[in-house]
Amino acid sequence: MPDTLRIIIYILVVVGAFSTLIKEFKKPQKSIFLISFNLLILIGFTYLLTDKLM
Q: Membrane-spanning regions, if any (predicted)?
């Protein structure tokens, strides 16, 4: 059960980072820091998810 809960939390964080990234790209003035931070979150959590699922 804890592994399932951890995977659900990972998925929620990835969805949140992805939606923040989409909102940031729609803005006229984009924050490079926020975009790079969200990309790092997406890369890290994608690695964790694929590591947990394999």
A: 7-25, 31-50
- Supply the pTM of this predicted model: 0.75
Give the contacts of 48 (CB within 8 A, at least 6 positions apart).
10
State the burial class of residue 41 (Cβ atoms within 10 Å of its Cβ: 0-12, 13-18, 19+).
middle
pLDDT tens-digit map of 27-43: 999 899 999 999 999 99
The alpha carbons of the chain give a radius of gyration, in whole angstroms, of 13
Residues of the domain holding 44: 2-53
Rounded distance, CA 11 to CA 29, Å? Answer: 28
Query: How many domains, in total, are found in the chain?
Result: 1
